[in-house]
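Retro notes, structure queue

What went well: the backlog is down to a handful. What didn't: a couple of records were mislabeled last round, so from now on we paste the full input next to the output in the thread. Example, using HTH luxR-type domain-containing protein from Rubneribacter badeniensis:
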Amino acid sequence: MNGFFHTLRSHGFDRKLVHSLATMATGGVMERRRMDTKRLRTWATVPNVVLCCMLALFWMFLWVTFQSPTNLPLEPYPGAPIVPARFVSLLSMAVGGIALLVRARTAAGKPARMARMALYGACVVASVLLVALDVLDGEYDGDFVGTPFFAACVLWGAVGALVYTEFGRLFSALGTARFRFCVACCIISVVCSLPLHLAAWYLHGEFRETVVLLFIVTFCPVLDYLRRAFALKEPASDRQTRIPVKFVLTLLVLGLALGMMQGLFTAFTAAIPGKSDLNPLSSLGFVVASMLCFAAVFVARMDFNRLIYQVGFPFMALGFLVVAVGGSSFFGYLFSLAGYQFTELCLWVLCIYLAVQIRGVGRWVFALLCCVTSFAQALGLGLVDGVDLVELQREVCVVVGATLLAFGLYSVTSKNPYESWGIMRPGESDEANVLEQACELIAVEEFFTPREKDVFLLLAQGHNRMAVSQRLVVSENTVKTHMSNIYQKLGVHTQQELIDAVEARCKELRERGTKLEF
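Corresponding output:
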């Protein structure tokens, strides 16, 4: 920068003018640095760091227990059919999620103090039982066999459902005041969980078992600390909101695809000696997912429809097509896992948004997310293992990849693609979201052209004709023509009347929070 201002002086510019420009530029850079430092200090508080670390441990727990493509055959008792251990733990998680969902939607619930005591007791009892099951073979090594292994899988699933739901309720309460922080925390924690994934694989089994047990035991105290630190309140009681069909179908297709790819990749690594190291390396998909999520949410500022159905599902389909066309099971699983984790992150953020907008949804929406995805994942694993689809790997990958693309296309172009949650952008501030959402709905209802929609949004933000012309790089006469068409479609005569119409729609959107449709 100093060289630039020296060049200006050498070309005869006034010395005082150049000095003023240099002072302003330097001051602007320093001010930006101060703002960045202040923002970093605001985010790097102890509760924020603790929350991010606990969420990273949570992703690691899910990976170790439910998602890693390891071949762990389970024989519940001598002579019983051998099934994948992941299948049992996922089914247990689905049953636990259903129980929590039914309780949250139908029962009034216990007082907060009794509910916390029950949660503490469940975590402690589960930890003690897991240790006892592990030492039945005479050694604490993280390895289980036979009936103790079956019981441990059931316990992991039940604890997984409990932890999943409680984490969701915490983020639902936190999202009311700090929605964008919740989005950033979800993305950052996924990256932070990668070293834990690798350590859980390459270190001894007792390390993996100890970390999981410590996470379960410390989960409740840390959650209570975070609730006090963030001054969170319990969510209001549910008003019996209907179960969203499109949301449930999305979870079913998502979990089924991951389960099938997980089963195919597990069979691939088990059949070829020396390929076991590909299992932990596939967790690099978490990093790909977090980078993709950051770019799509905070850079491209996509809405939920595009995030889930135009990025997440096609990315999962890419994994299946890589296997079908290129025959690379590792990269296929890597892309599919990245697409799944990306979509799960987006669904987490969507659930937080719905919990903020709809009273009482935070009590059960994460239980729904947990039970449906785990059931669908178990179903996918069961299909690959039980029907022996490994022999038809390429054909299966083509069918599943095409189904994912077709479902994404149908969901994003269904009869009501501009649902309230569908056009919400998680990377934007609340007010910007409401204004853009109102303009989007009006543009759809009045059949605005794409260019009219751009002009309309700028006019609603208060820009005059000259400013719109400069922003869109078109002539003022062109803007005038678009304004005339917009005014005619809206039945208004001035820009102020247009702004009043948009503000009325914004007010309507704010008031319909309790009537938000899925």
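Agreed that this is the format going forward. Reviewer comment attached to the example: The chain is about 75% helix and 0% strand.
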